[in-house]
Amino acid sequence: MNLRLLDSVEQAYEILNFVLDQGINLIDTARAYNGENGQGQMVESEVLVGNVIRNRTDLDEPIVIITKGHGYTPDVFEEELSTSLSKLGIEGKGNLKIGNNDIKLVYFFHGINESRWNTIKESGVLDKAQKAKADGIINYIGFSSHYHDVPQIKEALDTGIFDVIELPYNIFNRSLGEDGEINLLKYAYDKDVGIVNMKAFNGNGMPAIYRMLKGLISIDYKIMLNFCLTNPYISTVDAGARYVDEFKQDIEVAVGKRLTEEEIKNYKAEADKIAGDMNKICRECLHCLEKFECPQGLDFPAILALYSRYIMAEKLNKEPSELKDQYKRFQ
Fold it and tell me: What is the dotted CATH code of the domain comprising 2-168?
C-alpha cells in the first residue's frame, strides 16, 4: 500500500528488492493501491510488485502474493481478478508463475463490512471464487475486515471457505483479540485459518502521533511489533514499512526474542492509559481515496490527518501551533 506514498518508482523498486533479498516471501498488495507518487507519476502497486518479481532470477521458493479486490458480485470478481492477474503478470493455472518464479496467489475480498458481506452472500460470488481456486487460477481465498465488523467476520469464518484473513490488531486496540466479546484471532486460528495482522502500528498516522507520545509512554515501534508477533494466533504481521531502514528494524525484532507474559501485562497497562485518546482519529491509511475524490482537488486525506494530530495534541496538552501553521497552507 505504501509504494504509492514514496517519492519515486526507484524507491519502490528498492524496497521490494530489499525484502526479497532478505528471504521474505509474502507481499501484500491490492487492486486499489494506486496513486500519484512524490514525482507526480501514477503508480500501481500490483504492476510494481510484478515487475520486480519478474526480473529476479535468484528466488528459491514461491512468493506468496496477497491481492485484494472489490469483487463482491460474480461479474466484478471476474473483472477485478482478471485485471490483477494481468497487472501482476501472473501466468498459468495451479502452478502460477511471474516470469520464471513460482507464485502462490491469495485473493482477498477487500474490507468486508455488513453491506459488502450481504452482497457477497446474495450474489453467489463465493461459488465463483471457489471455482477459481479449484481451477488453479488462485491458490487461496481470503478477506480483510476491520474493528466494527465482528458479526460479519465470524459469519465469514463459519462458512469454512476462507483460508486466510487480514485483521487489525495492536497494543492500543485489542478488540478483535483478547479484549473482544469473542477473541476472533483465536477463533480463526482454531479453524486453521491463517491470520495476517495489519495495523500493528495503529496505522500510517502513528509516526507523527508517536512523536507526541514519546514522553508519556515507553512503548516504541519495536515493542508494538513484538507485541503482535508474540500473539500465538497470528501467522504474520503486515508491518507496512516504507523504507529500507524501517524494514531492517522490523527484521531485527522479528528474529529476536518474544515478550514475556509479565512484559505484555505491563505494556498493555501502559498503552491503555492513552488508548482512549486514539479512538476515531485518521489513521492515514488512504482507503478514503479508493471511494471518494474532491471535485475541487483538495487533499482531504492530508487535512483529516492534520486535524487528527491537532486533536491528539490538544488531548495530550502539546503545543499545536506548528499544526495550525501547516493547516493554513491548505487555505
Answer: 3.20.20.100
At 188-230, the pLDDT tens digits run 999 999 999 998 886 555 566 666 666 567 888 899 999 999 9
Phi, psi of 298, rounded to the nearest 5 degrees:
-70, 145
Q: Write out the chain in H/E/C secondary structure.
A: CHHHHCCCHHHHHHHHHHHHHCCCCEEECCCCCEEECCCCCEEEHHHHHHHHHHCCCCCCCCEEEEEEECCCCHHHHHHHHHHHHHHHCEECCCCEEECCEEEEEEEEEEEECHHHHHHHHHHCHHHHHHHHHHCCCCCEEEEEECCCCHHHHHHHHHCCCCCEEEEECECCECCCCCCCCCCHHHHHHHCCCEEEEECCCCCCCHHHHHHHHCCCCCCCHHHHHHHHHHCCCCCEECCCCCCHHHHHHHHHHHCCCCCCHHHHHHHHHHHHHHHHHHCCCCCCCCHHHHCCCCCCCCCHHHHHHHHHHHHHHHHCCCCCHHHHHHHHCCC
Whole-angstrom distance, CA of residue 90 vs CA of residue 103? 8
* Residue 196, CA distances (Å) to 66, 121, 152, 166, 199 in order: 10, 23, 17, 5, 10
pLDDT digits (tens, 9 = 90+) for 26-78: 999 999 999 888 899 999 999 999 999 999 999 999 999 999 999 999 999 99
pLDDT tens readout for residues 273-296: 777 766 666 656 666 766 677 787
pTM for this model (two decimals) = 0.83
